[in-house]
Amino acid sequence: MKQIQPKKLFYTSCLSLIVTAMTFAIRARIMSLWGTDFTLSNEQVGIIAGTAFWGFTLAQIIGGPLVDVVGMKKILYVAFFGHIAGVVLTIFSLSFWPLFLGTLLIGIANGSVEAACNPLVATIYSGEKTKMLNRFHMWFPGGNVIGGLVAYFMIDQLALSWQWLMGILLVPIALYGYFFSSAKFPETERVSSGVSYGDMLKACVGPLFIFMVLCMFLTAATELGTSQWIDTLLKQVGVSAILVFVFINGIMAIGRLFAGPVVHRLNPAGMLLFSAIFAAIGLYWLSNASGYVTFAAAFVFAIGVCYFWPTMLGFVSEYIPKTGAIGLNIMGGAGMLSVAVILPFMGNWYDNNKAKALQAGADAATAELQAGRDTLTTVMIMPIILIVAFAILFFVYRNKSKVNLHAETQTA
């Protein structure tokens, strides 16, 4: 009889998240190539890229409630087959709609990974959720680094086609599919603790949870909206935009690896306030930086967005535990939904800003530089709003225990 092996489950979860992240990194590099190859506007490319986030949201909305019913392993089978089908369809795409569908399937697969793996990590490490969710999510920026470097060498150095770059994904997909298929999975924490489905749903309509969902819209859009458009936004700053992308994600991976001491010192609410402040400063600096100074600005931005996603999940899992797998998947779905919405807007802002610069007499390179800077300035509004929101959260809840906070949430 198979035994549950927490380390095997955790490491394979990390591998599946690396695949998810690599799809983001590779897409960030080849979005501009799609525009050229298929004669698409930046808004159309943004719609295609946004489809990955719609698919992610769809998977989390459907997969979240099903995790407790069908088990985490079956949801990960959906992820495996979705990744295979999405990558193959993307490779053989010849126009807008096949790209759209292939990106949608990859998004559904990515969402299925998070739908299963977030509650899996929270279950096998129930005593240190925020710390281990940060370590798990370390592999999102870690996978972005891997994907970004692979994209840089295959596209920028070896001049291979983007189709070959997409094909690389099939190797880690096959590996995580094999390891998960041979593993035994535990019941989710909600099932094992005896919390009813009704109690879980009730917990998901509490005021604190709704507040966190609204904040998730802004944290995810700040981090992932910027990263998906980074190759375009920083095209003319004088350094390789994809290397800036790799640098940002490298800093994020290191920060999440050592999240434990930061959580202990600041607590989750303090971490979120700290993150919002640094994200706003980083975006402002990026909107004015050029040359190698761009890496310094990127460092500040990376420190800001580093803890956003896993700490939002960790806060909900620790302080509102009855929300269970559904709560984590609502949070993840809200985050990806916000990115799906923001990406076409960012593409449209960039196109309009570039058109204005050209009308003002700027040459093409200068217009692209100014368009990127103006778009980053607009994005900066989101972390500024978060500074206010997280300051309120921090000062209201900093002296309240998780037990008392949970009780207040359930009786509100």
UniProtKB/TrEMBL annotation:
The chain crosses the membrane at residues 9-30, 45-63, 75-97, 103-124, 136-155, 161-179, 200-221, 233-254, 266-286, 292-316, 328-346, 376-397. PANTHER family: BYPASS OF STOP CODON PROTEIN 6. Belongs to the major facilitator superfamily. SUPFAM superfamilies: MFS general substrate transporter. InterPro entries: MFS, MFS_dom, MFS_trans_sf, MFS_Transporter. Keywords: Membrane, Transmembrane, Transmembrane helix, Transport. This is MFS transporter. It is found in: Endomembrane system. Residues 9-401 form the Major facilitator superfamily (MFS) profile domain. It is a multi-pass membrane protein. Its main location: membrane. It comes from Chitinophaga chungangae. Signal peptide: none annotated.
